[in-house]
Amino acid sequence: MAFGIPVKVPLVKDTISQEELLALSDWLRTFPRLTKGELTVEFEEKWSTWQGSKYSVFVNSGSSANLLMFYALLLSGRLKNKKVIVPAVSWVTTVAPAIQFGLEPIVCDCDPETLGLDTDHLSKLVEEHDPAAIILVHVLGFPNKMDEITAICNEREIVLLEDSCESLGSEYRAIKTGNFGLMSSFSLYFGHHLSTIEGGMICTDDADIKDLLVSLRSHGWDRDLPNAKQKELRAKYGIDDFRAFYTFYHPGFNVRSTDLQAFLGLGQLQKADSVVESRNRNFLHYDAAINDHQYKVRQREGTLVSNFCYPLITDRRDEVVNALTEAGVDSRPLVCGSIARHPFWYERYGHADLPFADIVHDNGMYIPNNHEMTDAEVEYVADVVNSVL
Ligand SMILES: Cc1ncc(COP(=O)(O)O)c(C=O)c1O
Predict the structure, then answer these.
(1) Read out DSSP for 89-119?
(2) Domain map of the chain by residue range?
(3) Which band of pLDDT confidence, cut at 50, 70 and 90, is reported for residue 2?
(4) Candidates 166, 185, 196: which one to mutate for ligand 1, based on the most atoms within 8 Å of Cβ?
(5) Architecture category of domain 18-269 in CATH
(6) What are the tens digits of pLDDT across the range 170-227?
(7) Secondary structure class of 147 (helix, strand, coil)
(8) Is 192 marked active-site?
(9) Which mutation among 60, 187, 332 tests ligand 1's pocket best, with the greatest number of atoms within 8 A of CB?
(10) How do residues 280-311 score in pLDDT, each as one tens digit?
């Protein structure tokens, strides 16, 4: 396609359609309950079915999902020490809970093939530190090398957490990302694969962890727990039914979402498969259309990339960004680059030696992918990129 056509290609498009907003307004006219109630439970159950996990807990953001995962892990007593390996290419709230809860984060370099944990560096860090937990991110929808990572975790009794906020619907050996760790988090913020305006989900197959998450989500009380669990807690602590209204078993949070957002989530879930399919199709189209270059990140055999946005890692980043801007195409840095290059990190922990994360920090960027992107838009963006690369 010729240059000079002022087509604006945005990074993201709203996944909440006009039809869904009209359905929401019809529902509101029935004067329903808006706070967390039955629709939230229905949304969680349907999410679990789609994701392939036993339990899901709906919260108000992906960041709250990460916060709750870490705190539930800490309270569960399953950490053998305070050391947690965190990915260099991640997000502030992937890492921040470890700091906030007094754990000791150790940063792992990024793998050029997956943008996830560099498994050689990970093995070295595990030997050196014998960490209790690892949290990973499937960056931009690229699944991590899960065979290697789960083997390390099993061998050393390390708890794995998955931040799947950028990878809804990605697959590793036909298993959806978010089904490998003890818990996994998802974001339902605007621009992610699906949206509930703001929102997040935690998935787990562990009933005790699910109960802990549910209690921590709402103040640390027992109201949303199964009856048997409520009875058990009340008997253990001698709590009568009246006192139970305001009895707090854990120092909890309030990170609930609402039934209004669950209503939106139920609508969104119906198009999850088609969103994943479009994002993967756009990704493969970009892969074919964009000139080969040194750090082209591909869909590896045995994986499906439900791509968040398409990555470019090039020492000509500034030129690519300028060309795209002139052509009306949005772009951003490749998420956080290296987390160790951010003030909150280096002011606490100093410099970290992370060769590839540094390259991502200095040369990484991403270009649009969303469920409504057309073939013509992908080709237009690829042409602009190819004019520089
Ligand atoms: C990897 C990762 N984790 C966590 C989050 C936070 O999600 P939220 O914006 O819903 O709090 C994001 C946000 O983009 C993310 O990319």
Answers:
(1) SS-HHHHHHHHHTT-EEEEEPBPTTTSSB-H
(2) 18-269, 272-386
(3) very low
(4) 166
(5) 3-Layer(aba) Sandwich (3.40)
(6) 999 999 999 999 999 999 999 999 999 999 999 999 999 999 999 999 999 999 999 9
(7) helix
(8) yes
(9) 187
(10) 999 999 999 999 999 999 999 999 999 999 99
8 A C-beta contact, residue 106 and residue 131: yes
* Integer Cα distance of 95 and 99 in angstroms: 7
Residues whose CB falls within 8 Å of the CB of residue 285, separated by 6 or more in sequence, listed in order: 375, 378, 379, 382
Domain 272-386 classification at class level: alpha beta
pTM beyond 0.85: the answer is yes
**Residue 7's pLDDT band (cuts 50, 70, 90):** low
**Amino acid at site 346:** Y
Q: What angle do CA 283, 287, 293 make, to 5 degrees?
A: 135
Annotate 171-221 with DSSP letters as a single string: EETTEETTSSSSEEEEE-STTSSS-SSS-EEEEES-HHHHHHHHHHHBTT-
Residues having CB within 6 Å of any atom of ligand 1: 61-63, 66, 90-91, 93-94, 137, 163, 165-166, 187, 189, 200
Rounded CA separation 202/95 (Å): 16
